[in-house]
């Protein structure tokens, strides 16, 4: 038994997402370094290291069987790529044609799915690594034609074997980390949501809504990642107790997300009416405590500890007591607002039940629909269809593939023209920097240059201070591990680490100091080529397509509303169709937030739509919040009432208005808001709700009224986007 002082730090390290990844890389790099030292053959170090790095970059989450299959495919791709480079390296024209065609084809595989894109990108990187390794040997193959490819593929196979064994031993650990990440992001969302209940007059609600929309994108991304992980493990394994427990936790997280994103009334009106009461403070504290409970649940999952949601349960009791006090005062002018607060209380009480159920997810009913939607391609025909759908200049994937292939061919021609030392680093920089849009390219370009400078300075200092080879070998391995530990979230540090690794690694077989200036020059040149390519070769300005992404958001919201109305007519059922409509609406909202983030990084002329887009995002996310409240309160069938044709007609009209505005926005036409019709529907619904005795029907009518009023503001925001799009 290890002492507690030692086990606690180890357990915390184990909960870090990058720790297992970094540990696998450490084992692979240290093993190769030790082998080369033992054989006294450091000449094989560089290709073996490069093969390990490429294999680690190609790694995707899967079961051990799936990872083994992916590894075999990856090794075949790596072998073909390395051999092709060997055979054509001495023939520049043939090499340039092959480079352009292969980079275009491999980038197009991104249209099939993320797994294909990852393997294809890693294959392209390994091809450039082969060029670098050949250039390091003066263009001559090491130990004959098969020498270089064999070493590169051996390094890749070594890391792949470690990865497969690791996955077989710890197949559930990544899933646990992913679900913990979901609940951590939900906790942040709930605490941001609590700020909306702060009883302040004149609070900037739009800014709060914008922050919520951006955080919602992070929650959606985390949910999507967990869903894909669960789905891959469920294939052929349904029924496993542990896996079903994680599946139930995922559904609990989905339910919490729907309730957390719900809105029942404009917050400004609540703050104005109840400014001198403690109800909003109680609501704020309850949401804050539930956010903290989600964070505590995340830690409990990671550390296998009991989960305590006592503070949030007490906050719920305090909120209900405050609400009962307001009801006891019997003021008629508060009736509508108290109904909304009562709906909020029911929603948060159910959210609290979901949190309590997360401590024992096995208690979730087994008869509920637990199917997941499979987004992966089904056979070669599906792969061909996806590729064919993107063979158009309108496709961002096609434009990026064409842009990247031209970038690499131009970079290859340039290095043959000026003959720089270690010139193939130009191509490697271009591959890492050239991204599908200007905003991402600009960010990675800056971080790549900054990281390279940092790494070169650190490398110069360390190989000067520690000239002995054993110390430099340790630094090489540590820097390689640091690259994989930081590349997902700290790209500047990752670039500095890989640069340091390269310097120390090359210093093991030659003169690392001689690589400093060439590496800096090649990085600047490769970054400049990639930056110019994104500017002039079929530039994919996100601002120009903002109205289309906004239209997609409205289409998804309309489909979500129809799915909700169908549930109100037939009764609550969390089936796949409903969950898919809900997830598509949140995915579209998250995609719009991501697109706007990219627009804000574009040059001023193309950023002119950003303000209108941000305003649209605030209104569309508010609409999604009202829809989520409707979805959260689904109950028995017939909530609209059999004789209440006005409610049914209003609901259908709202859904059709959403779809119509989406069509007009997608086509760049003038958006007609139908303000009078929407406001009339809102008034009728509010009047009907005031006389309603059934709580569920009253909530449906109130929410539809809120959605109708929100559609007015949303249509006006869509109109501004449409006008700006028509001026392009």
Helices, by number, come to: 27
What's the average pLDDT?
A: 85
As a percent range, the share of strand residues is: under 5%
Major beta sheet, specifics? none
| Total strands | 0
Notes on the structure:
The protein is mainly alpha-helical and 728 residues long. The protein is 76% helix and 0% strand. The chain is built from 27 helices and no strands. It has helices spanning 4-14, 17-39, 45-57, 64-88, 92-108, 114-136, 147-169, 173-194, 205-234, 241-260, 267-273, 279-303, 310-329, 335-358, 380-389, 396-418, 425-433, 438-465, 469-486, 491-509, 516-536, 546-570, 576-599, 610-632, 645-667, 675-691, 695-726. Helix 10 (241-260) runs antiparallel to helix 14, helix 22 (546-570) runs antiparallel to helix 23 (576-599) and helix 22 (546-570) packs parallel to helix 24. The mean pLDDT is 85. Residues 413-530 form the Integral membrane bound transporter domain. It is found in: Cell membrane.
Walk me through the topology.
Layout: H1 4-14, H2 17-39, H3 45-57, H4 64-88, H5 92-108, H6 114-136, H7 147-169, H8 173-194, H9 205-234, H10 241-260, H11 267-273, H12 279-303, H13 310-329, H14 335-358, H15 380-389, H16 396-418, H17 425-433, H18 438-465, H19 469-486, H20 491-509, H21 516-536, H22 546-570, H23 576-599, H24 610-632, H25 645-667, H26 675-691, H27 695-726
Helix pairs in contact: 2-3, 2-7, 2-19, 3-6, 3-7, 4-6, 4-7, 5-6, 5-16, 6-17, 8-9, 8-10, 8-12, 9-10, 9-23, 9-24, 10-14, 12-13, 12-14, 13-14, 16-17, 16-21, 17-21, 18-20, 18-21, 19-20, 22-23, 22-24, 22-25, 22-27, 23-24, 24-27, 25-26, 25-27, 26-27
